[in-house]
Design a protein that fits this description.
Elements: H1 6-33, H2 51-70, H3 73-79, H4 84-91, H5 101-110, H6 116-127, H7 165-193, H8 198-202, E1 205-211, E2 218-225, E3 234-237, E4 249-252, E5 256-263, E6 267-275, E7 278-287, E8 293-297, E9 312-313, E10 316-318, H9 321-324, E11 335-341, E12 351-358, E13 371-377, E14 382-388, E15 417-419, E16 426-433, E17 436-441, E18 444-450, E19 458-466, E20 470-478, E21 484-488
Keywords: Membrane, Transmembrane, Transmembrane helix
Transmembrane segments: 169-187
Amino acid sequence: MAPESPLDKDAILLVALRHELVIKLQEDWDVLWKPRGHGDSFSTIANLPNQARFLSQLFEDIYDTLTNHFESRAAANDYMIDHERTLARFLSESYTKGFSLKTRNTIATYVGYRDYADFVRQYRETHEPPPSVTVVSLLPVPIRRELVHLPRYATTHRPWKPLSLRRKLFWWVVLSVLLLAWFIWGYQQYRQLRYLTASETAAVVFREVGRNAPTNPCWVRFEYDFSALGLDSLMLHYGGSLGAEEESQRSITRPKGNLSVAFYKGGIKLMTLRHRDQIIKRIIVMVPSDNWGCFVGGPDWTHPDFTPRQYYRDNCLFVNPDISIIDPKIRSYFMTHLYKAHHWSIDMDSLTAECRIQNKPDAFGISCFDTRLTFADTKVNQFAIEFRRPGCLEFTTQSGDTLLPQPLPDRKAFEVSFPKILDRFYNVKVVLANGVATTYMDGKLVSRNPYRHSFNHLRQLEVKFKGSGKIDFFRLTNSYTGQPVYTDDFGGPAVD
């Protein structure tokens, strides 16, 4: 029989991990999922009364589980999968494509393993037999055996003699050296794996010392020093925040020195220096954008920033996929990100944002036709308002619902979703003032949502379309004084 290929083994591991997730759901069903109205039992997601609502709640339960596991919301954010659609694909037996390591780590941790590598190790110990061993004798094999009778005075063994003092001393030295080596090795392992104290982490240096350009793209230089910790390496994570780069982490193996990080996309970015799952240092890096930036992304890829001529079209911000996206496979599923990062002096609690936007189903919109406006402050706290197809993933917050802001280091956006497709140009106005977010469409009040968190200065705007939408103009003013802060009509009235 031919041995299994690595692809076969990977598929077997994914099936086994999916089976573990199904078992956990079944074990938790009567306590956690049945009371929420998802049916009497679980077999497949296809048999659920409402798949979208279940996936949304499962996503939140996984998010809470990872937060408890890492004892940090920020660590869970970096570790967590990005969307409920990934859970739907993972639970679907008909989905045969692979999954990223981030997805595998998320599911493995949720079902009780340390990470995906721990799941693979335990699976192989349980299911894969040890390799066969062929024993080869190095002794000569006699061709013929003969019985030899010894004389009565002959003896077949030598009487035991006690070890000499020299030999005793020799073995005591050998044993002592082995014990000392074992102790040193164990102490070194402890030093590398230990949980660091607050005083140890306070002594670590990690700060920005310069950059080669004021806006993106730019290289940012950092100085670091963790030599006092006695560790071989630390991990630098710089993904997961707005404007995240394609590369999300790197290992730093020198205990002291300088490093450079390339930021091709502008934005407000949260960077963390970590020892295993422990956050050692956290710094926020602001990379202003050169006017508006634009890129498209999918489940397993992110496009570099476009040049302005690829998205400044028809007197608005708009990516025509038939012209700007070369690969036809990408055009069937992509998200368009239009962003502007700037050192605005206005607080988000005093912000009024107005824009005229559309995301038409018959003009490059995709499935749920998502349109999201996101605002971020200097600490990467975010506020978001989202529009999408009615009932899609059940993200529908009606007027009067209360938002629960997340304090730093959380970076999960607050969502106000409407069962509404922007099938034409709509004037959308969002007013943040006196702890209340008020939203208007074409001058009509559609939602008023209180928030408890106090934002500081605005640092980034982002408009994300599922597919390709249009922005005709964007305007910022002070909610209390009406004083203009920023405006751009991208060349004039848009071509509808």
